[in-house]
Write a structure and sequence with these properties.
The chain is of the alpha/beta class. Among the domains are: 64 residues, Tetratricopeptide repeat domain (Serine Threonine Protein Phosphatase 5, Tetratricopeptide repeat, Alpha Horseshoe), CATH 1.25.40.10; 80 residues; 162 residues, 3-Layer(aba) Sandwich (Rossmann fold). Helices cover 53% and strands 7% of the residues. Strands 7-6-5-8-9-10 form a six-stranded parallel sheet, with helices on both faces. A four-stranded parallel sheet has the order 3-2-1-4. The longest helix has 14 residues. The chain is elongated, with a radius of gyration of 34 Å. 45% of the residues are buried.
Length: 654
């Protein structure tokens, strides 16, 4: 988890439920001869003035005079609770209940104290006992529901809130709590109805609007959610949690600057708000304010050294700055706190792979399917996953594409290794790659995503195969080409290109604009053109051209870049095969060119994807590729200057 959206449902102070057994205590007739009744009266007077120690002395005096005085023990428990002496308060309540087993008020107060001290199971038992005595006690139903929700039992909590509402339809707390439980059950529409009911009863309670905003956001009612957050903050601008939740909403929409303002407001109101400092750090990191982000993460950890998310996020920031020792330390700290953290495991795996330690990296890399960002790619298949241990001889195995098109192009090479183990290989790929990968070595059956999964003995994601084969730098299957252009389309493109009089160079300067790392890995066409020599013929290999780049293509007088119709990857492969060199940022075209054995120059950002590793100018995955790396963050001019120099040294390209 990168930021946290907190439920703001909370119950205000409530009067303890009364029963006949807890009726007012009459005054003593003779003040000169203290008895338990007189001491209780004096103790209550002192308690009303919050003179807790003196009140406790009176109540204890009453229990000394009459050890079986249940009310005296109960009042001792109430005062000890105010003094923060939890164990002594519980003991006093237990003595009262040992004397009077149906003491409703004590069961309720005892349950409240246990709840406040996070003794949830014992608190639940106390409220259940209170409800056995009085099944109509609305406050007990609500408290019981709160506990069930905190215990991770939202369905039981929702039912308990429902009983409270049936008893008292005008109870705003019950409607609000039910809304929170319904959100946990994945029923945001029903939750919205509950929050609206609570707001109708308590339109002045700011936190209800914040909770309603959460339901609206889940229902993609973005403008309504935005308005609810803004109204909540207007109602109570001094509530740090309201600003925090507004920040989480804005962070979800990548409105980093506005989200940062919300988190800053939260930490100004509550300087020890560790989660807010952590989320502020994420916003600063996304806005390129690395130093500020490190300060925010560090401050969060000073407040709460158990905050695994802050360690993980700070580790990512250190990794982006190539401070790998510090990154490894933070990932290890995150895992020490949360051994099951999929984010920390995945980041550890990427760091090991980036540094070329493939053996250490593959196991942690397998945690990727559990992280939130990868849920769209994860598959739940009935067949057992093949991890390299079981024999595949005579078995059917279903291999499937998992992430981007470039990932599929890179790792489909493993199909031939799987087939060499005697398996009947069924490969499923993205629709755009079906024609390109037809005839791939080792594949017995090829299908596109969306088809029915055929019968198979095993299954495995393509990107899990390197780990299954225990791939090291020395054993990477690097034989190229393993993908080829269609001969008919190759001939058509060569005819369109005409005489080959000058070296031909294909260009890709940007990738998918929706990629999480697009800002780092893409540059503009104008940045590229400024460094390209004139003595070559240039061709656009871009699949999508952004508006600003389209204008550059139309208006550029320095360099002519031809565009040919590229309707599919087969067209792209045919054009690549007709060229002498491909220059590309880290996209699927770079992978395709490398897989075809074409001479390929890949432009790499300061922090590369793990597969390009560090420092080296070659790639063990693609023998015909040369890597051009940023030495300074976002410095594409420096990269292109080296590219230009190397192009200038080439009179011909063969």
């Amino acid at each position: 988890m990168v930021w946290k959206l907190k439920s703001l449902f909370s119950r205000g102070s409530e009067p303890s439920p009364r029963s006949d057994a807890a009726a007012p205590v009459p005054t003593a007739p003779d003040a000169t001869a203290p008895d338990p009744t007189a001491l209780l009266k004096r103790g209550m007077e002192l308690a009303s003035r919050q003179d807790w120690r003196a009140a406790l002395e009176c109540f204890r005096g009453a229990t000394s005079l009459d050890p079986n005085h249940a009310e005296a023990h109960a009042f001792c428990g109430n005062v000890l609770r105010q003094l923060g002496e939890v164990d002594a308060a519980i003991a006093a309540y237990d003595r009262a209940l040992a004397i009077k087993a149906d003491f409703l008020e004590v069961f309720y107060n005892r349950g409240t104290l246990l709840h406040q001290t996070n003794q949830l199971r014992a608190a639940l038992e106390s409220f259940d006992s209170a409800l056995t005595i009085n099944p109509s006690l609305v406050q007990a139903h609500c408290r019981r529901a709160d506990i069930l929700r905190e215990m991770g039992r939202p369905q039981d909590a929702e039912a308990s809130y429902g009983r409270a509402i049936a008893l008292m339809p005008g109870n705003a707390d019950a409607h609000a709590g039910r809304g929170v439980a319904l959100m946990a059950l994945g029923r945001p529409r029903d939750a919205l109805t509950s929050f609206d009911a609570a707001i109708e009863l308590r339109p002045d309670l700011a936190r209800l609007y914040s909770n309603r905003a959460g339901a609206q956001a889940e229902l993609a009612l973005v403008s309504e959610a935005r308005a609810s957050h803004e109204h909540a903050v207007r109602l109570d601008p001094r509530d740090a949690a309201l600003h925090f939740n507004q920040g989480a909403f804005l962070s979800d929409r990548k409105e980093w600057q506005q989200a940062a303002r919300s988190y800053q407001a939260a930490v100004q109101l509550k300087p020890d708000y560790a989660d807010a400092h952590c989320n502020l750090g994420l916003c600063q990191q996304e806005m390129g304010q690395a130093d500020g982000a490190i300060d925010s993460y560090t401050r969060a950890l000073e407040i709460n050294p158990q905050l695994a998310t802050a360690f993980n996020n700070r580790g990512n920031l250190f990794r982006s700055r190539k401070q790998f020792r510090e990154a490894l330390h933070d990932y290890r700290q995150a895992l020490a706190l949360e051994p099951g953290s999929s984010d920390a495991h995945y980041n550890m795996g990427q760091l090991a792979l980036l540094q070329g330690d493939l053996a250490a990296g593959w196991p942690d890399y397998e945690w990727r399917e559990r992280i939130e960002a990868a849920r769209a790619f994860s598959r739940r298949l009935p067949q057992p996953r093949w991890s390299g241990e079981s024999s595949l001889h005579g078995k059917r195995i279903f291999l499937y594409a998992e992430q981007g098109l470039g990932d599929t192009i890179q790792f489909c090479r493993y199909a031939s290794l799987v087939a060499a183990h005697g398996a009947h290989v069924i490969l499923e790929v993205q629709p755009g790659l079906g024609e390109l990968l037809a005839g791939l070595d080792g594949v017995a059956e090829l299908q596109v995503a969306g088809s029915v999964v055929p019968p198979a003995d095993y299954q495995c994601a393509l990107m899990s195969l390197p780990g299954a084969f225990k791939t090291t730098l020395e054993t990477i299957p690097c034989r190229v080409p393993y993908l080829h252009a269609n001969p008919k389309q190759l001939q058509q493109h060569q005819e369109m290109l005409g005489p080959h009089t000058r070296p031909r160079i294909g260009l890709v300067w940007s990738g998918n604009p929706h990629h999480s790392n697009d800002r780092a890995r893409s540059l503009t066409l104008r940045q590229m053109i400024a460094h390209l020599p004139r003595e070559f013929d240039y061709f656009c290999l871009q699949n999508e051209i952004r508006d600003a780049d389209r204008e550059t293509l139309r208006s550029s007088r320095e360099i002519m870049i031809r565009e040919l119709p590229l309707k599919s990857f087969l067209d792209t492969a045919a054009l690549i095969a007709s060229l002498d060199l491909v220059i590309s940022v880290d996209t699927s075209v770079a992978h395709l060119s490398g897989a075809m054995g074409q001479r390929t120059w890949i432009l790499i950002p300061y922090l590369p994807d793990w597969r390009w590793m560090l420092d080296r100018t070659d790639s063990p995955w693609y023998p015909t590729a040369t890597l051009y790396r940023q030495l300074v963050v976002h410095d594409w001019d420096g990269v292109m200057s080296v590219v230009s120099k190397d192009l200038g040294a080439l009179s011909t390209i063969t």
